[in-house]
Write a structure and sequence with these properties.
879 residues, alpha+beta, 6-stranded antiparallel β-sheet, 26 helices, 45% helix, globular
């Protein structure tokens, strides 16, 4: 009976987890609708749960306690509970499975040797890091290289082709065309004393990746960085193990760093921060080895010296790290003799002299900030705001995405557990070492980074400037795990690690990395908008750039930023404290299940802390956190996926699909400014009516990133039909007018893919499903040696159309699938072919157009600046 009840609870909770909610309208007293999977889906969920329970019942029924979070979206009056009506509910299920069935995995972990052999564990850390970061790099490939990466790569090309750092000619020759679209202008502030343009970026990283780039281009540089950073990750595991001598603690410390999105993403980006972290890990390894009483071979000592000597060449701000860590090593080597000290200092002394000489030769002064005009764009007054932003900002902060690194900070203040294990490893994390690391590395570097005007580093993944310091937090996190004897504290640390892994994985795989790169103008974390789609969660999270003038330079963050940050810190700390107290009670009341119960209580308390902190933060700012339009569009998308059980929550009854759809009215509040935009995000296929308040300015309906609208809204309601789901529907203009979007009929799901953009060509609207076609105002290009999927939608009365295909100025083979007649032909240079297209009864035609060859316009015409590889030019002609 217990197993049956457990299976029903698990199955029902799984079914409820898949629900989507939406208000009927934007009115405060509007009722809510819920969409659940069908009854057969409930039966399937219960059957799957029954199989799991039959195979192995949960270690304790306390493991099911976190499922309380699944009920929060169904609780009347708790709108903040909608946080768990989205991807975030996956973390709740991970907690339940680990608490109830995690013990089944322990024997397998023990047998693999990763908990008994330090050498095997080090190799495993390398392989896991290499595999995971390679997978992330492949997944986010459409987003890279970006930001300043092309500027580092152009320096690499200058070193390879010209053997110098003068980059003006490389930009003029467009050497960057292979990896960067558009025009790339040199980044510099002052010219050299010879009048030449030298890069503002340091040459260390370009020099290191130059051999790999010369061998395999940009891909070779990425592979080189992946391998080096996987080795650095293995060294991070070794550091954590040396500090504690505890395998479990070492794996936790390693995962805290390696699983953070900051470290994982920087492992393949062409920025100096990750390589700086690798060099720092080398120095920290030597410090801990010397503290333990070991003296590595001279070659290893010299290699560490060379790694630290590289730091200033990677970035000027790393010089404080090289000096601080070098001083720590010198103090430890000095008593051991002049030979070891000389071996260590040889490379740093030569590198330092060469580094200063470089500035003297180029700029006529040895000043390391000469490339910035001799003045640093930093102020001491910016340190509090910059530090708070680096740690807590929802776009660029470290801890919102990797809260487990709090354990690393805690570990800097505590010693390894005395007496366990009983060997010399525990002596490696001394109080003097922790104090030196904190003062010489963490405090000085954080102050330098936080005082910098652009502490967020522009278009960037979270906390890029802190990447170099992360190896210091690995032994700290390991010690924090080792010292956390209370099962509730262990559960809190495990929850923080789970959040960190979840954030990194979803940042990489959701929309191919789109949410990992933020810009301050958006003011909200893209990932937090995605993870809680039915509520304006970003309004209740710390946001440095909430105000329009919060630039991080002349202005500091608003007081609300500090208030919201304090609310979150206090609420989470209270949840952990409650878990610890309840764990002590449960240890007496239910000793057999005390460990699982403590973990379940703590996880549940942390889950409940999320909506509580959100509500408190929203009220502190005078906001309500509602996002009715976002929830309604998500509801429509769910209806388009197939049969669903629809419930009117106010009336507590099931309703018909058409009734639910036609009762929805998506409200778009008025905005000011002629360039104002209101976006609905992803919208499913279907017919919609867009209505605006009469008497105002017209508005343009735009699909995705298209430069032109597909329709114009005037005073009369506008009805339009989407033949496919679109990635984003935006209304531009119509300033000062309140708008509403209402579905005319139930939406449909015709294909898995969504249109990225749409343009009108005469009486036909073309929806572009992928990025392999280039839409232009009069026609579109198909990329060379590529195929593209498009959907054509004809206006009423148009029965057929013709594609006029103009070939590139090269021989080419072109095929069109889905046309009225099959087309697959060899075309001569600049030859034109006509391909008839027939529409179905809905006026829709799906086509796949492939071009086997192509050309680069800039190569064919020196006056042309277009570096795209293009195949055929396609015009749409209607009959």
């Amino acid at each position: 009976m217990t197993r049956a009840i457990t299976a029903v609870i698990l199955g029902a909770a799984l079914w409820l987890s898949a629900a989507v909610f939406a208000p009927v309208s934007a009115a405060a007293d509007s009722g809510w609708l819920a969409a659940l999977p069908s009854w057969p889906a409930l039966a399937a969920a219960c059957a799957a749960a029954a199989m799991l329970v039959w195979w192995r019942p949960p270690s304790s029924l306390f493991a099911l306690l976190p499922l309380v979070a699944v009920l929060l979206p169904w609780t009347p009056g708790v709108d903040a509970g909608l946080i768990f009506a989205g991807p975030l509910v996956l973390l709740i299920w991970v907690a339940v499975l680990v608490l109830g069935w995690g013990g089944a995995l322990a024997p397998a972990v023990t047998r693999c040797g990763c908990a008994t052999s330090a050498n095997r564990a080090t190799v495993a850390a390398f392989l896991i890091a290499l595999a995971s970061t390679s997978l992330i790099a492949w997944r986010v490939a459409p987003m890279i290289p970006g930001g300043d990466e092309p500027h580092y790569l152009i320096i690499t090309q200058s070193l390879i082709k010209d053997g110098d750092l003068r980059i003006e000619n490389n930009h003029a020759q467009k050497d960057y065309a292979a990896y960067a679209a558009g025009d790339l202008h040199p980044q510099y502030l002052v010219r050299g004393k010879n009048g030449e343009i030298y890069p503002v970026h340091a040459p260390g990283l370009p020099a290191l990746v130059a051999p790999a780039f010369a061998a395999a281009g940009y891909a070779g540089a990425v592979v080189f960085l992946l391998v080096v950073m996987a080795l650095a990750s293995a060294l991070v595991w070794r550091i954590a193990w040396i500090a504690t001598g505890d395998f479990g603690a070492a794996w936790f410390g390693w995962a805290a760093v390696a699983a953070s999105c900051t470290w994982a993403f920087q492992s393949f980006l062409v920025f100096p921060d990750a390589l700086g972290g690798a060099a720092l890990a080398c120095g920290l390894w030597l410090v801990l080895r010397l503290d333990r009483g070991d003296v590595p071979r001279p070659f290893a000592i010299g290699a560490v010296g060379a790694a630290l000597a590289m730091l200033p060449w990677l970035h000027t701000r790393f010089s404080v790290l090289a000096a601080g860590l070098g001083l720590m090593i010198v103090l430890r080597l000095f008593p051991r003799g002049i030979r070891s000290l000389g071996v260590f200092l040889a490379a740093p002394i030569v590198a330092a002299i060469a580094w200063l000489a470089m500035f003297q030769v180029i700029y006529g002064t040895p000043n390391p900030i000469a490339q910035w005009g001799g003045t640093s764009d930093s102020r001491l007054a910016w340190i509090p705001g910059g530090l708070a932003g680096l740690l807590f900002d929802q776009q660029f902060g470290l801890l919102p995405y990797a809260p487990v690194l709090v354990a690393g900070v805690i570990g800097l203040a505590v010693s390894p557990r005395a007496g366990e294990p009983r060997h010399a490893h525990a002596l490696a994390w001394r109080a003097s070492t922790r104090l030196q690391l904190t003062l010489l590395l963490v405090v000085t570097y954080i102050a330098a980074s936080a005082s910098y005007a652009m502490w967020w580093a522009g278009l960037s993944v979270p906390a890029r400037l802190i990447t170099v310091l992360l190896p210091v937090l690995a032994p700290g996190a390991a010690v924090a795990w080792q010292r956390a004897r209370n099962p509730a504290l262990r559960a809190a640390l495990a929850a923080a690690l789970a959040w960190t892994i979840f954030a990194t994985a979803t940042l990489a795989f959701a929309e191919r990395g789109l949410f990992a790169w933020n810009i301050r103008q958006h003011k909200a974390g893209l990932w937090f908008e995605w993870v809680a789609p039915l509520i304006d969660w970003t309004g209740g999270l710390p946001a440095f750039f909430r105000a329009d003038d919060a630039l991080g330079r002349e202005s500091l963050p608003l007081p609300e930023f500090y208030t919201v940050t304090a609310i979150w810190l206090v609420t989470i700390a209270a949840a952990v404290a409650a878990g610890v107290l309840l764990a002590r009670v449960l240890a007496t009341a239910a000793p057999r299940h005390a460990r699982v119960a403590a973990g379940a209580v703590t996880i549940t308390a942390l889950a409940l802390a999320l909506p509580v902190a959100t509500v408190l933060s929203l009220r502190a700012q005078g906001a309500d956190g509602s996002a009715p339009s976002r929830a309604q569009v998500a509801f429509l998308s769910r209806l388009a996926e197939g049969d669903a059980l629809l419930i009117d929550l106010a009336a507590r009854r099931a309703i018909a699909r058409d009734t639910a759809v036609t009762s929805l009215r998506v409200a778009l509040p008025p905005v000011a400014g002629r360039e104002a935009e209101r976006s609905l995000g992803s919208v499913p296929a279907g017919t919609f009516t867009l209505t605006g308040e009469p008497g105002g300015a017209p508005g343009a309906v735009i699909i995705g990133r298209a430069p032109q609208p597909i329709a114009t809204l005037a005073d009369a309601p506008l009805q339009f039909r989407l033949p496919v789901a679109v990635n984003a529907l935006t209304v531009r203009g119509a300033e000062g007018r309140a708008l509403s979007l209402q579905p005319v009929s139930a939406p449909t799901r015709l294909a898995q893919q969504k249109a990225l953009r749409a343009l009108r060509y005469g009486n036909v609207t073309v929806y572009f499903i992928d990025d392999r076609a280039y839409a232009e105002p009069d026609a579109f290009w198909i990329g060379g040696a590529r195929y593209a999927n498009v959907v054509l939608q004809a206006d009423p009365g148009v029965q057929s159309a013709v594609l006029e295909i103009v070939n590139a100025p090269v021989g080419n083979r072109v095929s069109v699938v889905g046309a009225a007649e099959p087309f697959d032909r060899e075309l001569q240079p600049r030859e034109t072919a006509l391909v008839p297209v027939a529409f179905d009864e809905r006026g829709v035609a799906r086509l796949q157009i492939e071009s086997a060859g192509g050309f680069i316009p800039a190569d064919a015409d020196p006056q042309n600046q277009d570096r795209r590889f293009l195949g055929v030019y396609v015009r749409v002609l209607t009959r």
